[in-house]
Amino acid sequence: MENKNQEVNFENNSENTFPRTKFLISVGYLIIQVLIPGIILFFTTSTDFTFTFKLPFWIMVLSSLSLIIFTFIITFITYKLKLHQLDQFTYSIPFAFVLSLFYLSGYFLTPQQILIRFIISIAGAVIGIFLTSIILLLVLRKKQKKSYIKI
Questions:
Q1: Is 111 part of any domain?
Q2: Which of 30, 88, 99, 151 gets the highest tally of CB atoms within 10 A of its CB?
Q3: Residue among 148, 132, 138 nearest 34 (CA)
Q4: Residue 13 CB partners (closer than 8 Å, separation 6+)
Q5: Are the C-beta atoms of residues 66 and 99 closer than 8 Å to each other?
Q6: pLDDT digits over 82-114, tens only?
Q7: Between helices 36-45 and 88-108, what is the axis angle to 10°?
Q8: Structural domain of 92
Q9: Domains in the chain: how many in total?
Q10: The pTM is what?
């Protein structure tokens, strides 16, 4: 007969977690991988300023998509080089979505409608977090299956 009163220790459950990047390293890579390219894109081509290049909307969309793809590729390369952990994707991809949607919303909304632009950007962050979480869960499951096969 089985014992139904088993204790569960939640303090050291390393099976369901993955290594985390240290905070300052994560912030540094976030600045290098997303913030600097996003700010350069924003200040050189945004419709918010009079001194920037005025681009058609479809080029702005391509620029935003290229920022997201660039962020993914650079984060993937630095992950494969073991410069940070897998959790860096959780920060960099949603942040790229935020910058891209803030950039694109400037085409339709004026700088005075900043609150609406931030709400749109936060919605982009939620979408980015959702997509990144799904992808990371699939990757972690694949890693766990490989580790079970090796045993």
A1: yes
A2: 99
A3: 132
A4: none
A5: no
A6: 898 888 888 899 999 999 999 999 899 888 899
A7: 10
A8: 24-150
A9: 1
A10: 0.80
